[in-house]
Amino acid sequence: MSIPLLRVQGIETFYGPIQAIRGVSLEVPEGTIVTVLGANGAGKTTILRTISGVLDPDRGEVIFDGSNIVGLTPDKVMRRGICHSPEGREIFPFLSVAENLLMGSYTRSNRDEVARDLEMCFGYFPRLRERASQRAGQLSGGEQQMLAISRALMGRPKLLLLDEPSLGLSPLLTLQIFEIVKRINRERGVAILLVEQNAHIALRTADYGYVLEVGRVVVEDTCKRLMERDDIKEFYLGQR
Ligand code: ATP
Fold first, then answer.
1. Which residue ranges does the record assign to the ABC transporter domain (predicted)?
2. Would the CB of 197 count as within 6 Å of ligand 1?
């Protein structure tokens, strides 16, 4: 069996005295899309923050590309090849769209490559090219989401962490953005760890899924099999 690109092993993460993650293990094999589903407050965002070094777990390991990255700063985690498109997008509203994208490439020195990747982002999201010199704070919610994903891509990740890309978007725009996420995975070979409340779209997009309840993984399987389970249909897909 090949070694997965990312292996999270038994992490426990706290906010002060509050334990948000209670021994979570998961894997993301190279080139795949893996999703973490769960209700509000289940701990999805905390898992991504623990992987990207924003939070340190009290216990457990995060093995990326063969080494434990627990304790590295977010900056160092990014240099290793993990880029995070955070919940709420966290774009820089007073910078232009192009400047936001270049912020995503600050760890890189090859300007030609950066220019090519800028073109790549504009290829995936032509709307960003049209708005390149506009302040990012003036973009619509959907455009800001495109910008957040693209800014993460500008770091040339091996693994992209995507937190709730559908948040606040219309169903149609959500579908369009997820189509592009799939293309990015296919065409660039970028592995993706996707956190989503919209279980319908997440299960159709990803290869493998984990269901999180109150900080614990309660079910894991291929998305195909998860979609066929009665409990998943009832609680996450709203079908009986
Ligand atoms: P959502 O879908 O609503 O974003 P989530 O599954 O991403 O939820 P988290 O944001 O990871 O959940 O939160 C997990 C738990 O940790 C929740 O109980 C939440 O209240 C708590 N929590 C999150 N951030 C903090 C914080 N900064 N301080 C204290 N508790 C927090």
1. 6-239
2. yes
pLDDT in tens, 82-133: 999 888 778 888 999 999 999 877 777 778 888 898 999 999 999 999 999 9
Pick from 44, 25, 46: nearest CA to 35: 44
Q: Is 38 in the pocket of ligand 1 (CB under 6 A)?
A: yes
- The residues pairing with 194 across neighbouring beta strands, listed in sequence order, are 35, 162
- Considering the chain, what is the average pLDDT of its residues? 92
Pocket test for ligand 1, best of 18, 51, 52, 198 (most atoms within 8 A of CB): 18
Phi, psi of 101 (to 5 degrees): -65, -40
- Which ligand 1 atom sits closest to the C-alpha of 49? 11
Distance CA 151, CA 161 (A): 12
- Structural contact between residues 64 and 161, judged by C-beta atoms closer than 8 angstroms: no
The complex scores an ipTM of: 0.95
Alpha-carbon gap, residue 5 to 193, rounded angstroms: 11
pLDDT, tens digit (0-9, with 9 covering 90-100), for 70-79: 999 999 999 9
Interval 34-53 mean pLDDT: 95
> pTM for the full model?
0.94
